[in-house]
Description:
The chain is mainly α. The chain has nine helices and four strands; from the N terminus they run ββααααααββααα. A hairpin with an 8-residue loop joins strand 1 and strand 2.
Amino acid sequence: MLGGFCFSAISGTARGETSHDGAMTDSATEQEPRTGEDEPRREPIFNLAGVVTAIIGLCIAIHVLRVYLLSPDADDRLILHFAFLPIRYSGEYPIDFFALISPLTYAFLHGSAAHLMLNMIWLAAFGSPLAHRIGTARFLAFWIATSLAAVLLHFVLHSSDPSPLIGASGAVSGMTGAAARFDFRINRSAGKPGFAGPVLPLAQVLRSRMAVAFIVVWFVVNLVVGLASGSNGTPRIAWEAHIGGFLVGFLAIRLFDRPPQAIGAPD
């Protein structure tokens, strides 16, 4: 797993001035008192973007509600209404309000604490530098686009499946795809670590050993784990949704990026 994008070191050096007395042969150095401008900039150790923190908090709150406050019957109804069920769009059922919102709300539901924790770690690692780069509004639009792409590919391959699809993995996979288009470069100079440089052309990304190695490993792991899941009573992993989100993040990140002159500007 790649991580560490949301941490920065506290750095700074104290600077003194040397004064010389022309009437004496000896010299002495003294350190002038600090002014506010001379103080070294202290960066927070935990540099999550605000929108990412809010999404993580919402996902955790929903999971706590389901586990500790809702009865099993109430939780089943919540999943029925807010999870993505492919069969709901097969033409056998009317398109109601929940059919319209579940292609987005499914991303805030998780099947277990481990499922939730894994997605939130990846969201913090890849989502925060992306949000710092493109800003809150564009990040939310990116979240929506990759979440929809994830369920769309899943639906194309499993249009009559009654099993609910839940989890933020599709959107998070889109963020990993976007990270590859920056070749995982991070700018930490502004105190808010964000992806650096222009969005690289596809040909240049495919010439990067790190980017190609990451993409290959990502696809292999998703295919192997996804195809092997669902046996012996284990939950089935919707690897198709992961790929749908990844492809949109990888191919369409340029549409969500800020104009060059706005990169680094306050959100």
